[in-house]
Amino acid sequence: MFTTILSMQKEKRYIIQGFIVFFVFLIMYFVLDYLNIGYAEMISTYGIYLVVINILVNIVMAFTSAFMWNISTALVKLTGKEGKGSFASGFAYIFGMLTYGCTPCVIALFSTIGLTFTVAVLPLAGLPYKFIALALLLLGFIWLRYESNHVKCKVKKD
Questions:
Q1: Would residue 155 count as lying in a domain?
Q2: Containing domain of residue 60, as a range?
Q3: Which of 61, 31, 36 has the alpha carbon at shortest distance from 123?
Q4: Does 116 map to a domain?
Q5: Cβ neighbours of residue 110 closer than 8 Å, sequence gap 6 or more
Q6: 5 domain-assigned
Q7: How many structural domains is the chain composed of?
Q8: Is 121 exposed, middle or buried (0-12, 13-18, 19+ CB in 10 A)?
Q9: 127-149 and 88-99 helices cross at what angle (nearest 10)?
Q10: Each residue's pLDDT tens digit, 38-68
């Protein structure tokens, strides 16, 4: 089934959808970086290597999110139900917003709902947390691929 879903990704609809979703997620990840510390401050504090790593991880996360979105869309089209692994891209974004995103905003947000705590300064401008978010995305992708290969309903072939 996964090979069928991969072959569907060559259709114009999925290519356009993939580009749009990729750029939306890429913009969201860049906004999170900007709210966290910003690239100029990152360069002056840690050096250019950290900015390059952050941008590369953003691209990989945005591509993975867009690809999972397309897989979920194709899975819904073929089976009529969405895979459970498709939640990971949204969850990784929320995780990123709450950890390596704007820390003062998160503290204020949680304080308004009654959760007060002390947040230590995140190391390397939150890069370890970005890697955790990437790992969550990859786990979601693996789960989505497993689900697409083990569909529990009959699929109509045209």
A1: no
A2: 12-149
A3: 36
A4: yes
A5: 116, 117
A6: no
A7: 1
A8: exposed
A9: 170
A10: 889 889 988 999 999 999 999 998 898 888 8
Pinpoint the alpha helices (H) of the chain. 2-8, 12-36, 39-46, 48-79, 88-99, 103-112, 127-149
Digit-coded pLDDT (tens) for 67-104:
888 888 887 787 776 555 555 555 555 555 555 445 45
CB distance 86 to 72 below 8 Å: yes
Whether 54 contacts 131, CB under 8 Å: no
Residue showing tokens 């890429």: 26
Cα–Cα dist 85/110, whole Å = 27
| Residue 6 maps to a domain | no
* Residue 53 CB coordination number (10 Å): 17
